[in-house]
Amino acid sequence: MKKLGFGLMRLPLLDKTDANSIDVEQVKQMVDAFMEKGFTYFDTAWMYCGFNSESTVKKVLVDRYPREAYTLATKLHTGFFHSLEDRDKIFNQQMQKTGVTCFDYYLLHGIEASSLPKFEQFDCFNWLLDKKEKGLVKHAGFSFHDSAELLDEILTNHPEMEFVQLQINYLDWESEWVQSRKCYEVAVKHGKPVIVMEPVKGGTLSKIPEQAEKVFKDYDAELSVSGWAIRFAASLDNVMMVLSGMSNLEQVQDNLSYMEDFKPLTEEEKELTYKVADIINAQTAIPCTGCSYCTSGCPKKIAIPQYFSLYNEDMRENLEEKGWTATATQYAILAEKFGKAGDCVGCGQCEGVCPQHLPIIEKLKEVSGHFDR
Fold first, then answer.
1. What would the mean pLDDT of 27-47 be, rounded to a whole number?
2. 265, 268, 270, 271 alpha-carbon torsion, rounded to 10°
3. pLDDT, average across residues 120-135
4. What are the φ and ψ backbone dihedral angles of 114, each rounded to 5 degrees?
């Protein structure tokens, strides 16, 4: 398989405030462009796009292409099963929603220290192997958001897992929080192929500070800044697939332009990504990827990722000189439909599901202090 995978978590919407309003016709165009260039890997999950990603897969892919033409991956998350029976109920519904009779790749979703005990309690590793033995799954693995030490422990205890999906990008490569490099090295040690998620860090690496963008453009004026991020991840030897959560046809076409005939980064180019990472890290207030795991259970319906993104934009500005930025208006528009940052009641459900382990409650206070005036 070619190394670029289609991540179906951030699909285009007809209404940006409604995760259910997927622009199916545009997604069909995106899928067709992707497939025409020989790319076949599609990644979805139970809760993506307001629980509609898997059913969209059926409309845009499964109903329109022969089964042997594509590779499909989906996942089981601890937030949605509470009994042994629930595991099968979700799995069977996933088959019904997608319209397939076998998943090429199936993952235990988002393993970290807080979720691992539940996966173990409900014997999910053996459950997944049973699905494989029955021919319902071809490859068994898991996605992971935690320390390299815990990853080493899991792969030691579960050598039967065939692959691991990790958050890897040049911004998180040396992060002590995400530990991209360390986790990658653990996977290599255990001989497990790596599927990369968040190579563009939820879009963060597609819109970088001007100073950082200039570093890339001075070297190669044609390659997009997103292209640098995806090529960084794809250049790693043990990486079998890089997922890109594409949100419009233009992003698909951009990705195809440099991944159709993929060329790994040179050592000089890798050094440029490290230089850019230093510039970006110095200007990022809240390292949110915009995955939106935090929003579905929020009792105040606070648009957490959107508010963090607006806050980050303002923190990169010279506010003393400008006095006003458009983000304040954007925040006010969102706050008419969603709860304000200051409405947070501190229940903590968001922090319990955040793959980045962000102190969301404290950060919302900062956002509120900035915008709720």
1. 97
2. -170
3. 98
4. -75, -25
